[in-house]
Amino acid sequence: MDVSVPENVMVTKLDSLASWCRKNSLWPMPFATACCGIELMATGASKHDVARFGAEVFRFSPRQCDLMIVAGRVVMKMLPVLQRIWLQMPEPKWCISMGACASTGGVFDTYSVVQGIDRFIPVDMYVPGCPPRPEQLIQAIIDLQDKIQREGTLMGKEFQTEARQRPKRALLDIVTPQSAPRPEPLPIIPNVGV
Ligand code: SF4
How far apart are CA 177 and CA 174, in angstroms? Predict the structure, then answer.
């Protein structure tokens, strides 16, 4: 039987096509809390132009995003917010930890600062530096694109079935402000004026 493929026709797997589309149209959710956030902004500006990699549509609604970029230190009080935003992002989704503080707590080795966000949400790429340069973040995005293409992102019903079967990417239990024993409120210091 003669099976001829007409010109201008490409044959591929649906999953490869979906992954190719997804990796080239990442929508980042910026979680910028400190100085690393400035470099994150520089990455989106004209000189570095992250739009070249299809990831320029920064959104502040987690439901429209598939790439969380945590840039800066995260304090314990902020952690429930970070986790809630992560959970609000639809699958498939990815996370980049940008800078020493987000990945390890950096120089802030203290009880109130999270010593690495990967203890609480899953991280796909780590960007070293204090702060990392925009080129490093872009390299992380390129590496992430490779990972997305390599691992694939199943589509539609297939994805839903697969997502139901695989073990949940667990969030670590944390003591939320609601469950923690509440300290006695501090006394209100009267404003004596100047
Ligand atoms: S890693 Fe350095 S630049 Fe980034 S938030 Fe921490 S102190 Fe700031």
Answer: 9
Q: Where are the domains of the chain?
A: 14-160
With a 6 A CB cut-off, is 102 part of the ligand 1 pocket? no
**pLDDT value at residue 159:** 57
Identify the band that residue 26 occupies on the pLDDT scale cut at 50, 70 and 90: very high
Assign a CATH topology to domain 14-160.
Answer: Rossmann fold (3.40.50)
The residue nearest atom 6 of ligand 1, judged by CA position, is 101
Per-residue pLDDT tens over the stretch 112-124? 999 889 888 889 9
Q: Give 27 Cα–ligand 1 centroid separation in angstroms.
A: 23
Residue 4's pLDDT band, with cuts at 50, 70 and 90, is: confident
What pLDDT shows up at residue 24? 94
pTM listed for this prediction: 0.79
Environment class of 8 (CB within 10 Å of its CB; exposed 0-12, middle 13-18, buried 19+): exposed
- Tell which atom from ligand 1 comes closest to the C-alpha of 33: 5
For residue 188 the two structure tokens come to 């209100």
The CB of 100 under 6 Å from ligand 1? The reply is yes
